[in-house]
Design brief:
It is a single chain. By secondary structure, this protein is mostly helical. The protein has ten helices and seven strands. Strands 1-3-2 form a three-stranded antiparallel β-sheet. A two-stranded antiparallel sheet has the order 4-5. It is globular. The two termini are 38 Å apart.
C-alpha cells in the first residue's frame, strides 16, 4: 500500500508527492522548538531514579511520531482556500480578508493556507466562530489550538458538565465566554 492509498482509504485525495510533503511538514512542525525537550539536570535525573522511573530512549521519538500523526491528520482534513471559500459561498479574496482579520483559523502548509475543518458547521462557520478565532493567542502551535477546541473547558458548562468549545458553540453558547477561555491560554503559557 502506498502513502497516497492510505490517505485515500480515509477519503483524503492526495497524490504521493502531496502526501509526502504533508508528512514532511508535520514532522518539521513537531520537531520544532515548541515541542523540543531539554535534558534533565543531574539533580532532576536523581529524583526520577529514586522514584523508580526508568529511561525510555524511544519515548521521545514515539511522542514526536504521535504528534506528527495528529498534525498530519489536522492538515489532511483541512480545506484549501478555494474549497473553504466555496463551502462558505464567498470569494477567495473575501476569505483571504477573513484570514487576515483572524476571523477564521488558517494554518500555513508550505506556501499555502489551509483551514481546519473543525471550525466549519456544514456550509458555514461555527456560530460565533469569528469572536473565538480572534481571541486565540498568536504563536500557539496548531495542535495546541486543536487541543483547546476539543478538550472540555471547565468554564463552558453544558448540562453541568464541562464542554468542548466546538460543542459549546454548536449548542448556542456564548462566543464571548469561549473567547475568554481562549484568551486565558496566554496566561497559562501555552
Amino acid at each position: 500500500m502506498t502513502i497516497s492509498e492510505v490517505f485515500e482509504s480515509h477519503g483524503i485525495h492526495l497524490d504521493e508527492r502531496e502526501a509526502i510533503e504533508l508528512i514532511d511538514h508535520a514532522l518539521y512542525a513537531v520537531r520544532g522548538e515548541r515541542f523540543a525537550t531539554t535534558p534533565l539536570s543531574p539533580d532532576e535525573a536523581a529524583i526520577y531514579d529514586t522514584a523508580g522511573f526508568v529511561d525510555a530512549p524511544k519515548a521521545l521519538d514515539r511522542q514526536a511520531a504521535d504528534l506528527a500523526s495528529e498534525f498530519v491528520a489536522l492538515l489532511a482534513s483541512s480545506l484549501s482556500v478555494s474549497d473553504a471559500a466555496d463551502r462558505l459561498g464567498v470569494t477567495r479574496p473575501r476569505l483571504q480578508q477573513l484570514i487576515s482579520a483572524k476571523a477564521v483559523w488558517a494554518i500555513r502548509n508550505g506556501t499555502k493556507w489551509v483551514l481546519p475543518a473543525i471550525q466549519f458547521d456544514g456550509t458555514s462557520l461555527l456560530p460565533g466562530w469569528a469572536t473565538v478565532a480572534k481571541a486565540i493567542p498568536t504563536g500557539l502551535h496548531p495542535l495546541e489550538i486543536l487541543g483547546y477546541l476539543t478538550t472540555p473547558q471547565p468554564e463552558l458548562e453544558l448540562a453541568d458538565e464541562p464542554s468542548t468549545v466546538v460543542d459549546w458553540l454548536r449548542s448556542g453558547g456564548s462566543p464571548e465566554a469561549a473567547a475568554d477561555a481562549a484568551r486565558a491560554l496566554d496566561d497559562i503559557g501555552l
